[in-house]
């Protein structure tokens, strides 16, 4: 099987430009990118080029699904990143709040509160940047 | 604070009719419903009446987010249930497949394969019912 | 089905007064309470009014069970909160220490040490307040 | 440091007799007991002899705490075992049901339903044995 | 960045031949392979070609590490698969048993017993095939 | 059954000397050691004396397996500790980096990035100490 890596790379660049119009995303400076840049790059190319760029599902819905998955994993840094991406892709704080209410039922309060706290942090950063 | 329980109950009934047009959902016959029917009923009224029925976010997007959250939790029975709900709300097997590919990046293969296996089971049931 | 919400609210107030005689609990100022106060309030009314206030099981045993559940989830903030509640409801640091030893067998050292660390923090706060 | 192993062994035997008056517990025939009987035995001696036998906390409360911890881990086989132990130590199905309602708030529906289903299985086995 | 996909594919084939001398591995017939064969293939090429084939770490140590990681995740199907791979790569049942004892300390009994049970199943299959 | 506790204690001391030639390990000052020193001591004697000291599997492989298990659990403090132990037992940063790439496939990016970040921290500490 051959993989359309160049095509994914081109599309991944377009998604990156849509999600991070002001420049490269902050998570790019993590330990995986430092210690195994080939893996970090391939994972981004695959995720963005094969999936986030594929309009079978629109980018806003995809960002919300990734966020919903992360609510159950409970990593606040990733949650803030993908809540920001969802908002960049067109979601509102009200929409995310309403989805978190629905997800509380499946994950319970500790995980849900971590997610609400992440959303408060993202909202406050956006408001501070906009004022 | 007062809670609009009656309004949620009415809206929850509408959501139930949309998600389960052929009758009550199979999960209703679980241990929570048998041992603590008041809690099971309140959880359904809250989830469906306050959230799933709230068109701040459309029902298809909500069902996909619940499914994405369950991918990380890894419960096959719930996954099949919500994949079926997402399809009833308008999602296609191709859309769900494409979202699972994106979620693989965050949860890894064991959880992702559980989700793909659930989707195969749901698809096969739908095809068997339709033939 | 109708839900005795007013009755739960009354009982929830009594439980809150028992668990937090000095005033409202600190966790009340979290992201869920800020972004979705209706859900945060209903969850408290349900948990405290229907369960913690129900003397089928005494409040001390209930607080210890919630703590034991949180040991497996591993959220230090919630652990400290419920260890404090268990102590308010009559548990001692020695009793909680003895339960943590038993739970180590099921959760392993990383989760167990998080719980012991939480208990050290709670004990130190109580001793500092009492001196 | 020396460890009072013989004392724990004697106390562990008393706890085993209280929890399993009809004979050895079924979980004793697991893979750990077969492949590493020394570890399996030491873990039982430690858990039962140092903790479950220690009346700093009564056996019923301990069994309920272990069950509450397992609700968050979500292993049905262990849940059924410890719900049975809690009942042997004096708990009722109503008490366990009431505790599961309280724990739902922290773990969400998939984990809670697994626990309610385990309790239904335990209750049905007890009723079948008693009739 | 360019990725040496063809090189990984060649090396992945060599690893597959070492791990599954009798033919393709059973897990290849899962839902991911059926619904998204491109992703399933890329994941195998990456894992086997870039990592398992890289003799920075020998294959036996790598298989034991994957198994140790899966002990914490708790998926019996994957555990059996990688215990089998570790044995094919030169590990013995005694070595795996000794590693499981060490991992018990970090994961607790429910996860550890799942792993010991998986090892009993793998050992019994090997003995049945050899007799 | 009798347990060779004194033999384990002697062997555990040798392992401790190998893993922490400069003195006692930092984790020894945790809440478990403070609140239940008998349990903390027995767990160390068991882990080090019965398993880490047992040359059925060499200490470097054991440390890598414990690290791999902790990658899935996701506790950064423990990860740093065992990455340091693996390096003391002979592993290199390159070997650990290569194993983390392989484990990414099973745990996904949030857990993998936590592990790479831990390895960066350990490597930086070693380099700072060596310069």
Notes on the protein architecture:
The structure is a homohexamer of 131-residue chains. With 131 residues, chain A is mostly helical. Chain A is 77% helix and 0% strand. Chain A starts with a helix and ends with a helix. The A-B interface holds A 43, 46-47, 50-52, 54, 56-57, 61-62, 64-73, 78, 94-95, 98-99, 101-103, 105-107 and B 43, 46-47, 50-52, 54, 56-57, 61-62, 64-73, 78, 94-95, 98-99, 101-103, 105-107.
Question: What's the number of domains of chain A?
Answer: 2
Provide the CATH top-level class of the largest domain in chain A.
Answer: Mainly Alpha
Could you tell me the CATH topology label of the largest domain in chain A: AhpD-like
Strand content of chain A: under 5%
In brief:
Six copies of one chain form a homohexamer. With 131 residues, chain A is an all-alpha fold. Chain A has two domains: 1-56, no CATH class; 58-131, AhpD-like (Up-down Bundle).
Topology, pairings included?
The structure is a homohexamer of 131-residue chains.
Chain A: H1 5-19, H2 31-35, H3 37-52, H4 59-73, H5 76-88, H6 93-107, H7 109-130
Helix pairs in contact in A: 1-3, 4-5, 4-6, 5-7, 6-7
């Amino acid at each position: 099987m051959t993989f359309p890596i160049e095509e994914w790379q081109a599309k991944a660049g377009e998604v990156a430009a849509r999600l991070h119009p002001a420049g490269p995303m902050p998570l790019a400076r993590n330990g995986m990118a430092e210690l195994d840049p080939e893996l970090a790059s391939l994972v981004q190319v695959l995720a963005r080029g094969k999936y986030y760029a594929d309009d079978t599902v629109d980018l806003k819905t995809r960002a919300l699904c990734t966020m919903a998955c992360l609510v159950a994993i409970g990593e606040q840094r990733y949650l803030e990143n993908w809540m920001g991406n969802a908002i960049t892709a067109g979601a509102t704080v009200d929409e995310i709040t309403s989805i978190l209410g629905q997800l509380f039922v499946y994950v319970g309060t500790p995980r849900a509160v971590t997610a609400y706290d992440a959303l408060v942090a993202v909202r406050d950063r956006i408001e501070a940047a906009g004022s």
